[in-house]
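for the writeup, i need someone to sanity check this before i put it in the appendix. the sequnce is what the collaborator sent (i think, or maybe the updated version? ugh). structure was predicted straight from it, no edits. if anything looks off just tell me and ill rerun, i have time this weekend
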Amino acid sequence: MSELNRKTPDEFKKTEKVPIVIVLDNVRSMNNVGSVFRTADAFLLQAIYLCGVTATPPHREIQKTALGATETVTWKHFSTTIDAINDLRKDGFTIYAVEQAERSTMLDDLKLDSKKIALIFGNEVNGVDQEALNICDACIEIPQHGTKHSINLAVSVGIVVWEMFQKVRMRP
């Protein structure tokens, strides 16, 4: 394990974070929540905002997939996603909903104007709440070419975070 040059939890907490916040809007699956924590840890993301009914650590079902990432990644709980969006806006974040919607921008076509990015991922069945969608700066969509046109939430987070991580790192 030492050959992998992994950070200790203390080193992780002291390391400058990538200015991306993941917002989970009423996500029901604790396994998805745990997986999102692991992704956030892997990419040194600034934080995760857990909203509404989204479960919060500590919880055995979250820990099963988080594998300790709840101890390193900063997180906050908000009673509503609107409250989280308002908090992020005060800090100068550009807010993107990740959703299949009219006038959404395909992820690979997105041009970033801001370095501080918040990504809202919605409920596994209903997606991002319409009220939250209405106040986002933009909506981005993962291009899909198969028959299902839906991807598991945790997988979607991984795809979008990887792309945004690259875009944020490439900016001067």
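The helical segments are 9-14, 30-42, 60-66, 81-90, 130-134, 153-170. The chain has a mean pLDDT of 93.
thx in advance!!
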